[in-house]
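Thread: Modeling a multi-component assembly for a lab meeting

Hi all, long-time lurker, first post. My supervisor asked me to bring a structural picture of a complex we are working on to next week's group meeting, and I have zero experience with this. I have the sequence lines for every component (295 residues in total). Could someone generate the structure of the whole assembly? Inputs are pasted exactly as I received them:
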Amino acid sequence: MSGFLWTADHLGWGIFALAVFTGLWLLLSDFCWRLTRSRITRFAATMATGWIVGVALILFGFYIASR
Amino acid sequence: MILAVQIVILCLVAAAALLCAFYFPYPSPLIRRWLPPRKRWPEMQIRRWLKSGKFQRAFLRHFYSDPERAAPPGSTLLAPADGLVTSADVCGGIRYLVVALSFWDMHVQRSPVAGKVISVESHGDDFMDGEGREFAFLREKTCPVQKRLVIATDAGPVAVRLITSLAARRIETWVHEGEEVTRGQRIGRILLGSTVVLELPATAKLLVREGDRVWAGETSVAEGLTVP
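Re: Modeling a multi-component assembly
Sure thing. I ran the full set together rather than chain by chain. Output:
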């Protein structure tokens, strides 16, 4: 887990990927929200699900890479 | 070195997120360019600019756009403005075809017919006390300001009214009395204006209905102007 947060002289790739993904997901959500006509609750649930899947993939990728 | 690159990337992502928050509920400049005009500049935001008198340059560039238009062949009457047809009532033998413009429409008006401009009349807010009071398109405006261009054709006069409110009150006309105009020629522009009315003989056959979307100089709105 230490490699996830910090590795030799720089941020761990895991936490870095999480931070970048979260920021970009936020931008994408804002963009899609302005283009879609769906209800906000349904849209928020969809985007939250997408974020959880993305985070899970990042964690899984980090787990595979660090085995 | 890697740490520096990571920090720069994180700062860029954070700045993008902060921009989103700063501009909310309006779109951030980062995503604005990919949105359609109505989403790019929400009406609420435009109304705030109207009050303050300060507009985004990109919005003004869009607003002042003046694209080329190709008039369809034939002798049909063309729409004088971009917008939605909101009514086409007949009164006193004249049909008043009302085209409502939105903030996102192109605001240059074009001549519906070929002919000679016989008058360019200006009407201020006092016009409300006169002939126009019975028309819905005038009643909706507290203090309308108008320019009325009358174009003589072989089949009689056709008039175009450019209407705006007292708040905007800026109408440019680009033709003069006595000038020959061609079908689809630019005749003027309403700055932040909202209504254009085409007055044509009631005998002309209408080709559009209430709720139709029309484009200045391109959409045929009526035909059958006959020589009396």
